[in-house]
C-alpha cells in the first residue's frame, strides 16, 4: 500500500476523483464528507460508538502539503469513537469502516477544523484530504477489572444518566453462547436490579447510559450470574453472558445536594435495611452499593444537635463496618483496611473495626500489624476468644516467617562462603603456578651457569 499516491493529487484532481468514485457518508447527505475505499476490510463487525479504535492516517491540504501522519511517527493513533475526541469527519468515517480497511476522505471545513483551522498547520476554512486505515477496535471497558464491556448500537439523547436509586424502564435481551435466554421489558431501581433478576453488570452500566441508548454489554461471571449460574435460564456456573439493553426512560433519584439532612436520615434507615437483606442473601456487591449510598449522603454532614449528630455517626459507623465485612468476604483487603480506618477515626475503641482490620492485615501477611490490632481488641474486651486465637496465629506466622528468613539467609551465606572458598582455591592455584614457573626459571639459569663454568 502506498500512502502518497492518491494524496498527491492537486485540489481539482482530488475533487474530480471523489466525485467519480466517492460516496457521501454524512448523516444528512450534504456532501461534507466523501469516502473512497482503497482496500476492503475484513468482513464482520464494524466499530460502534464508544469503542476504542486504533488507526493509521495521513492528512494533507488540498494543494498537497502534508500536515500530519501517524505513519511518519511509526505509531498508530487511538481514540474513543463518537465521543468528540477527534474531528467530526473521523467520528463519522470510522463508523463506516471494517477492520483492515483503507480509505480516502475528502472533508469540508465544517467536518474538519472549521473557520478556526489549526494554527501553524491548517488555515481557516480548509478542506482536507485523509488516508485512513482502521487497524483495530474494541468495546469500551466500564470497570477497572474489565468485567463489563459496552458497545453502543444507538446513541442516546441528552446529557443526564441514571444514578443509584433512579427508576429505569429498559428492554433486555440476554444471551449465552449465542442462545437467547431472556427477552423482556422491565422496570427496576438502580442498585436493586437483583430484585428483578437483572444481573449486576446491567445495573452498573445504567449510570453510563443515556435515554434512548441501545448498547451491547459483555459481562464476565462476576457481573453476570457468578458461580451459581442461573438454572431457570439453563446457564451454568462461571459463564460469560451478553445483554442487549435499551434504556427507554428513567427518573433520577435525588442527588445528595438536593436533600436536606432530615430527608437523608429518613432514607438511610431503609437503605441500610436493604443492604442487610442483600448481605444475608450473599449478594455482597449489591450490599456494597447500598452502604456506599448512605456514606455518600452523610460523611460530610454535621448535625444540628447532639441527638442528630449521634444518628449520623451511628449510620456511618454501621455502614463502614458493614462495608469492611463485605470487602472481607470479597477478598478486597485494601478496602477492608480503608473502611476500618474510617471507623477507628470516629471511634478508636470500635471492637469490630479493629478485629476486621486485623483479619485483613493477617490475610495480607502483615503479621505484626495484625497482631497489634488483635491485642488492641483484647484491651477493649479481654474475653474476646477469637482475638486471642488470632494472636496465636500471628505469633506462629511470625515465627514461621523468621525461620524462613533464617533458611534463606543461611543458604545465601553458605553460597557466599562456597563462592569465596572457590575463588580462594583458584587464587592459590594461580599463585602456586607462578611460583613453580619462577622456580623452573631459576633452575634453568643455574644449569646454564654450570655449563658456562665447565
Explain what this protein looks like in three dimensions:
The protein has helices spanning 4-7, 11-21, 70-73, 88-95, 200-205, 261-280, 284-298, 306-329, 333-346, 351-363, 367-380, 385-453, and strands at 23-24, 33-39, 52-61, 66-69, 77-80, 102-107, 128-138, 140-141, 148-154, 167-176, 179-189, 214-219, 241-251. It has 454 residues and is of the alpha+beta class. α6 runs parallel beside α8, α8 runs parallel beside α10 (351-363) and α11 packs antiparallel against α12 (385-453). The relative contact order is 0.06. The model has no long low-confidence stretch (mean pLDDT 90).
Layout of secondary structure:
Blueprint (H helix, E strand, L loop, with lengths): L3 H4 L3 H11 L1 E2 L8 E7 L12 E10 L4 E4 H4 L3 E4 L7 H8 L6 E6 L20 E11 L1 E2 L6 E7 L12 E10 L2 E11 L10 H6 L8 E6 L21 E11 L9 H20 L3 H15 L7 H24 L3 H14 L4 H13 L3 H14 L4 H69 L1
Antiparallel strand pairs: 1-2, 2-6, 3-4, 3-5, 3-7, 6-7, 8-9, 9-12, 10-11, 10-13, 12-13
Helix pairs in contact: 6-7, 6-8, 7-8, 8-9, 8-10, 9-10, 10-11, 11-12
Shape: extended
Put simply, the count of helices is 12
Distance between the termini: 93 Å
Specify Rg, calculated over alpha carbons.
Answer: 35 Å
Beta-strand content bin: 15-25%
Total strands: the figure is: 13
Helix content: 40-55%
Biggest sheet overview: 7 strands, antiparallel
Order of helices and strands: HHEEEEHEHEEEEEEHEEHHHHHHH
Uncertain stretches of 5 or more adjacent residues: none
Oligomeric state: single chain
Mean pLDDT: 90
Which class of secondary structure composition applies to the elements? alpha+beta
Amino acid at each position: 500500500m502506498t500512502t502518497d499516491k492518491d494524496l498527491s493529487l492537486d485540489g481539482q484532481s482530488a475533487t474530480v476523483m471523489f466525485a467519480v468514485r466517492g460516496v457521501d457518508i454524512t448523516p444528512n447527505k450534504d456532501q461534507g464528507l466523501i469516502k473512497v475505499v482503497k482496500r476492503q476490510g475484513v468482513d464482520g463487525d464494524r466499530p460502534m460508538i464508544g469503542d476504542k479504535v486504533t488507526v493509521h492516517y495521513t492528512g494533507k491540504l488540498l494543494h498537497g502539503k502534508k500536515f500530519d501522519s501517524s505513519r511518519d511517527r511509526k505509531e498508530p493513533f487511538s481514540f474513543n469513537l463518537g465521543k468528540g475526541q477527534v474531528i467530526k469527519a473521523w467520528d463519522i468515517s470510522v463508523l463506516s469502516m471494517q477492520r483492515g480497511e483503507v480509505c480516502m476522505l475528502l472533508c469540508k471545513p465544517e467536518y474538519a477544523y472549521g473557520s478556526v483551522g489549526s494554527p501553524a498547520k491548517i488555515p481557516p476554512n480548509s478542506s482536507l484530504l485523509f488516508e485512513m486505515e482502521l487497524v483495530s477496535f474494541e468495546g469500551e471497558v466500564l470497570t477497572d477489572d474489565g468485567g463489563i464491556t459496552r458497545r453502543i448500537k444507538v446513541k442516546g439523547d441528552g446529557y443526564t444518566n441514571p444514578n443509584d436509586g433512579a427508576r429505569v424502564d429498559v428492554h433486555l435481551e440476554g444471551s449465552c453462547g449465542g442462545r437467547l435466554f431472556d427477552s423482556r421489558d422491565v422496570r427496576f431501581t438502580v442498585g436493586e436490579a437483583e430484585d428483578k433478576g437483572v444481573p449486576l453488570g446491567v445495573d452498573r452500566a445504567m449510570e453510563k447510559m443515556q435515554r434512548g441508548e441501545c448498547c451491547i454489554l459483555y459481562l464476565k461471571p462476576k457481573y453476570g450470574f457468578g458461580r451459581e449460574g442461573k438454572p431457570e435460564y439453563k446457564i451454568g456456573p462461571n459463564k460469560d453472558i451478553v445483554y442487549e439493553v435499551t434504556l427507554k426512560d428513567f427518573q433520577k433519584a435525588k442527588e445528595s445536594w438536593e436533600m436536606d439532612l432530615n430527608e437523608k436520615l429518613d432514607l438511610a434507615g431503609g437503605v441500610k435495611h436493604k443492604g442487610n437483606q442483600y448481605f444475608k442473601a450473599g449478594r455482597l456487591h449489591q450490599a456494597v452499593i447500598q452502604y456506599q449510598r448512605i456514606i455518600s449522603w452523610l460523611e460530610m454532614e454535621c448535625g444540628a444537635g447532639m441527638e442528630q449528630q449521634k444518628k449520623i455517626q451511628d449510620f456511618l459507623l454501621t455502614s463502614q463496618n458493614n462495608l469492611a465485612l463485605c470487602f472481607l468476604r470479597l477478598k478486597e483487603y485494601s478496602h477492608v483496611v480503608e473502611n476500618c480506618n474510617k471507623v477507628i477515626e470516629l471511634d478508636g475503641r470500635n471492637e469490630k473495626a479493629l478485629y476486621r482490620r486485623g483479619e485483613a492485615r493477617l490475610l495480607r501477611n502483615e503479621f505484626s500489624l495484625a497482631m497489634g490490632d488483635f491485642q488492641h481488641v483484647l484491651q477493649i474486651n479481654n474475653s474476646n476468644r477469637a482475638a486471642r486465637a488470632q494472636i496465636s496465629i500471628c505469633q506462629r506466622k511470625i515465627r514461621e516467617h523468621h525461620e524462613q528468613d533464617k533458611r534463606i539467609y543461611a543458604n545465601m551465606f553458605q553460597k557466599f562462603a562456597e563462592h569465596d572458598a572457590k575463588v580462594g582455591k583458584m587464587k592459590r592455584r594461580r599463585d602456586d603456578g607462578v611460583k613453580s614457573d619462577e622456580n623452573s626459571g631459576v633452575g634453568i639459569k643455574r644449569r646454564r651457569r654450570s655449563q658456562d663454568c665447565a
